[in-house]
Amino acid sequence: MNQPLAGFAPAPVGARMENHGSHMLKVAMQTGNDLLARMGSMIAYEGFIQYEPNPPAVRQIARDWITGEGAPLMKCSGDGLLYLADYGANVVVINLAGEAISVNATNLLAFDANLQWGVERVKGLAKFAGQGLWNTKISGQGWVALTSRGEPIVVDCGGGEDETYVDPDALVAWSPNLKVKGKRSFKAQSLIGRGSGEAYQMAFSGQGIVVVQPSEDSTDRLRFRG
User: Fold this and answer.
1) Are 176 and 101 in contact (CB under 8 A)?
2) pLDDT digits (tens, 9 = 90+) for 160-195
3) DSSP 184
4) By CB neighbour count within 10 A (0-12 exposed, 13-18 middle, 19+ buried), where does 9 fall?
5) Alpha-carbon span 27 to 51, nearest angstrom
6) How many angstroms separate the CA atoms of 15 and 41, rounded?
7) How far apart, in Å, are the Cα atoms of 185 and each of 136, 158, 218?
8) Cβ contacts of residue 172 below 8 Å, gap of 6+?
9) Do residues 191 and 185 lie in contact, with contact meaning Cβ atoms separated by under 8 Å?
10) Which of 76, 70, 139 is nearest to 105 (CA)?
11) Which three-class secondary structure state does DSSP give residue 131?
């Protein structure tokens, strides 16, 4: 019975975070190197790992999270292997080496607890939206795992004058140093996005990347808030 399933066995640990297939995250846990992960994302683990839902550090930052935007987090600590997933979504692993990334809270699966993070208003959209947009910024030295509804595309914005336009409902993450502004489109409202009203796009320019998923699921995603 083991022989037909041998191809699905976990590979030897090669890094703190890595994919097992496209839809699962494997984390090598060590004492003193805690992890913050989306509540309910644990699907299996080996060894001795403890979980603390909504720890004090998260509660303090979560005060800035306005209702409707944010992801409940749990602190994972201990030694062993931890497997995480989010309803079969693709998993994207990023190793930050002093850089920063801005992420939709609903696309955030897990990240090292030593990283600096917080909720920030997206600059350049307050005038456009009348209220503004909020996102989660993560920076420092460590690992981050994101989810994508389908295999994502990573667009390099380069440094030219051309802008990259993204439907907000398909946006996963972007380099926070990019310039962001909003664009309204009346004529394209029946072609862009899933809404029946005025179509909105986010325009990115500068040096950096934008991660876009092949889905426009607007349920519990980055949204305009006051």
Assistant:
1) yes
2) 678 899 988 899 999 999 988 887 765 554 555 555
3) E
4) exposed
5) 14
6) 20
7) 27, 24, 18
8) 92, 103, 104, 107, 146, 147, 148, 152, 211, 212, 213
9) no
10) 70
11) coil
d(CA 174, CA 101): 6
Q: What is the pLDDT of residues 36-55, one digit of tens each?
A: 999 999 999 999 999 998 77
CA distance 37 to 73: 5
Cα–Cα distance for residue pair 127/130, rounded to 1 Å = 5
**Which pLDDT score is estimated for 51?**
94
The CA distance from 136 to 73, in Å, is: 13
**CB distance 89 to 41 below 8 Å:** no
Residue 115 pLDDT exceeds 80: yes
With beta carbons less than 8 A apart as the criterion, state whether 83 and 42 touch. Answer: yes
What global pTM score does this model have? 0.84
